[in-house]
């Protein structure tokens, strides 16, 4: 008999007990003797019985399942987030369904519809940036508990957000370089914004602007601009290296920058993928790190401690991010009020050997 076809009636017949007795044991409700309980559980195991989650959900109103929707589970950042989320969910008695959107709005819409059909109790989502996040709004209006992960956009301001403080993350990396005497600091970013479009976010106090509505990459660019501004350093747009989100493109972008001969004594890459590409470009040019150029990457990847010198990185609390978002969602599912203010986690600067005082840097980039 196929596992999916096994019913409580089949289990009762196999165990030699009544349907009601089997139902009480399998639902863990009501009374049954230890002998009956043993017979039913052994019969269920032999037949491969699985409870009908949809029927259980319709009866109880809950499934003890949450959905997590992310752009790419293969990216180490989201893999670690998922681990933290799954561990926290299971400890609280929940299981997790994961969906990968490839940053495609249509895929995200279908994923949310499927999760709703599965009657998940709530959803954690790192949303695709789009003008009208209608699917998320619709689920919210239907009463689905939703927690945003890492990012949000206009139209979703009312939803709780758990994120790393991206502005602070890059600001502290750039400040560490400034503290070592660096004044010409290049940045590798996928953010498309230029300084003028971010001036309002950069110059006004943090409490006066909602930075969470910017993409994480733009928030990190703001952190760079703020660090330079607070140090009284001029902002040179030529030092902002634009790259699309691939290692190969980041390598090409940094190599092209190096070919220009624009003076710089330090480089900060604002993402794990961009960090890999930027480092490859520096090695391909045979630049000595940190003697020729100080370098700070993003996220503590395996390779960052396998190379010589080991790379200083901004480390995001990835597993704790997933755990915090899951705790927030389960709290809402169980009746707690949704947190109106974003929960912002602080990244850590892991200091290693890829940064030196500016006096050591020769700036031989020509």
Short note summarizing the structure:
By secondary structure, the chain is of the alpha/beta class. It has helices at residues 8-15, 19-27, 34-47, 53-60, 76-91, 105-117, 134-141, 166-179, 195-203, 216-230, 247-260, 272-284, 318-333; strands at 65-70, 95-100, 122-125, 146-149, 161-164, 185-189, 240-242, 266-269, 294-298, 312-315, 343-345, 348-350.
Description of the molecule:
The protein is of the alpha/beta class. The protein folds into 3 domains: 3-51, Orthogonal Bundle (434 Repressor (Amino-terminal Domain)), CATH 1.10.260.40; 63-163 and 319-345, 3-Layer(aba) Sandwich (Rossmann fold), CATH 3.40.50.2300; 166-317 and 348-360, 3-Layer(aba) Sandwich (Rossmann fold). It is built from 13 helices and 12 strands. The protein is elongated.
What characteristics describe this protein?
12 strands; Rossmann fold; 434 Repressor (Amino-terminal Domain); 366 residues; alpha/beta
């Amino acid at each position: 008999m196929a596992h999916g076809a096994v019913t409580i009636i089949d289990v009762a017949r196999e165990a030699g007990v009544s349907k009601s007795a089997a139902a009480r044991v399998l639902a863990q409700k009501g009374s049954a003797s230890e002998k009956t309980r043993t017979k039913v559980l052994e019969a269920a195991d032999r037949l491969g019985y699985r409870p009908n989650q949809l029927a259980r959900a319709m009866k109880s109103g809950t499934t003890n399942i949450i959905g997590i929707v992310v752009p790419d589970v293969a990216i180490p950042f989201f893999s670690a987030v998922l681990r933290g989320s799954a561990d926290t969910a299971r400890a609280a008695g929940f299981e997790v369904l994961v969906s990968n959107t490839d940053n495609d709005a249509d895929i995200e819409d279908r994923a949310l519809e499927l999760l709703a059909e599965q009657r998940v109790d709530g959803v954690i989502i790192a949303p695709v940036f789009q003008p009208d996040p209608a699917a998320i709004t619709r689920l919210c209006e239907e009463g689905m508990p939703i927690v945003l992960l890492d990012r949000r956009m206009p139209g979703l301001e009312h939803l709780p957000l758990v994120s790393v403080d991206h502005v602070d993350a890059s600001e502290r990396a750039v400040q560490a370089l400034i503290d070592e005497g660096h004044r010409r600091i290049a940045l590798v970013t996928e953010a498309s914004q230029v300084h003028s479009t971010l001036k309002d976010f950069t110059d006004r106090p943090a409490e006066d602007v909602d930075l969470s509505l910017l993409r994480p990459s733009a928030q990190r660019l703001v952190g760079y601009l703020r660090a330079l501004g607070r140090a009284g350093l001029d902002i040179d747009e030529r030092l902002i290296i634009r790259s699309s989100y691939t290692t190969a493109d980041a390598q090409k972008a940094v190599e092209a920058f190096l070919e220009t001969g624009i003076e710089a004594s330090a480089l900060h890459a604002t993402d794990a993928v961009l960090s890999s590409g930027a480092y490859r470009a520096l090695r391909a040019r045979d630049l000595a790190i940190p003697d020729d150029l100080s370098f700070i990457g993003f996220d503590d990847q395996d390779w960052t401690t396998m190379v010589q010198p080991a790379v200083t990185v901004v480390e995001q609390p990835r597993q704790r991010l997933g755990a915090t978002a899951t705790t927030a969602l389960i709290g809402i599912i169980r009746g707690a009020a949704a947190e109106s203010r974003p929960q912002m986690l602080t990244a850590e600067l892991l200091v290693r050997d890829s940064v030196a005082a500016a006096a050591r840097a020769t700036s031989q980039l020509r």
